[in-house]
């Protein structure tokens, strides 16, 4: 094992995978976690030195098992990137779609589990293993935490990460551990939209940026890489906007 140990929740696709590739180029060891074993295993095979650990980060028993495996194999975690989550509307629908209140409860529960619980459980399971000093914790939020997502539940779930990150930064700061959040806007080449974004919506989202383009997974990965570097050791409890200025509106 060379370099740092970089644990990435949701590391099998999209921004998480791009982040793993970015750290691997520096000689670090990415540990990829995801629900779909075939996805994270295939991703790890494509990255020299990467390790795949399949598991559901919204399930406490799975998280406890994963944390135990990470502890036994690596001991210390240098960087933790919480990239798991996504648009809950892409998950299976409610058992009874004809019950509107049950459908609302299902939507909000799915988004909370996918975007909040997955990050909080993994972070809490590994917080005592974070390198002290020098540990880094990163959360992938969204522009939707500021501007809404159209459904309410996804943006609210992402926004919930912000106060948690601030509290965590305060708690871990004396150990020399930094905690930061990245808030992307439209990022193409991910599974977020399920490949079904209407051209008109894409054009509208791009028009809201100040630089006239969609983001890429690499934009987020490079930001995460910098936040995890020694150069960013005095940057903590911050929310870094990676959305071409769209967060400010037009």
TrEMBL record:
<keyword id="KW-0521">NADP</keyword>
<dbReference type="GO" id="GO:0016491">
    <property type="term" value="F:oxidoreductase activity"/>
</dbReference>
<dbReference type="InterPro" id="IPR052178">
    <property type="entry name" value="Sec_Metab_Biosynth_SDR"/>
</dbReference>
<protein>
    <submittedName>
        <fullName>SDR family oxidoreductase</fullName>
    </submittedName>
</protein>
<keyword id="KW-0560">Oxidoreductase</keyword>
<dbReference type="InterPro" id="IPR036291">
    <property type="entry name" value="NAD(P)-bd_dom_sf"/>
</dbReference>
<dbReference type="InterPro" id="IPR057326">
    <property type="entry name" value="KR_dom"/>
</dbReference>
<feature type="domain" description="Ketoreductase">
    <location>
        <begin position="4"/>
        <end position="190"/>
    </location>
</feature>
<dbReference type="InterPro" id="IPR020904">
    <property type="entry name" value="Sc_DH/Rdtase_CS"/>
</dbReference>
<comment type="similarity">
    <text>Belongs to the short-chain dehydrogenases/reductases (SDR) family.</text>
</comment>
<dbReference type="Pfam" id="PF13561">
    <property type="entry name" value="adh_short_C2"/>
</dbReference>
<dbReference type="InterPro" id="IPR002347">
    <property type="entry name" value="SDR_fam"/>
</dbReference>
């Amino acid at each position: 094992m060379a370099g740092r140990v970089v644990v990435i929740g949701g590391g099998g696709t999209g921004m998480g995978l791009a982040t793993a590739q970015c750290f691997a180029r520096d000689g670090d060891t990415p540990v990829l976690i995801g629900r779909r074993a075939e996805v994270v295993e295939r991703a790890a095979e494509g990255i020299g030195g990467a390790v795949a650990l399949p598991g559901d980060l919204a399930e406490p028993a799975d998280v406890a098992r994963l944390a135990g495996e990470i502890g036994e194999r690596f001991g210390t975690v240098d960087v933790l990137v919480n990239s798991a989550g996504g648009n809950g509307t892409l998950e299976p629908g409610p058992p009874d779609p004809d019950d509107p209140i049950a459908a609302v409860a299902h939507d909000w529960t799915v988004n909370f589990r996918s975007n909040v619980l997955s990050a909080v459980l993994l972070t809490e399971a590994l917080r005592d293993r974070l390198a002290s000093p020098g540990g880094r914790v990163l959360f992938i939020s969204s522009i939707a935490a500021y501007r809404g997502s159209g459904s309410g539940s996804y943006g609210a779930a992402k926004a919930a990460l912000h106060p948690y990150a601030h509290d965590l930064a305060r708690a871990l700061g004396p150990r020399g551990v930094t905690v930061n959040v990245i808030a992307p806007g439209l990022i193409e080449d991910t599974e977020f939209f399920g490949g079904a974004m209407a051209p008109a919506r894409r054009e509208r989202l791009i028009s809201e940026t100040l630089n006239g383009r969609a983001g890429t997974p690499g934009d987020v990965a490079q930001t995460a890489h910098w936040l995890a570097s020694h150069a960013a050791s005095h940057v903590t409890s911050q929310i870094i906007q990676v959305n071409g200025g769209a967060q400010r509106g037009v």
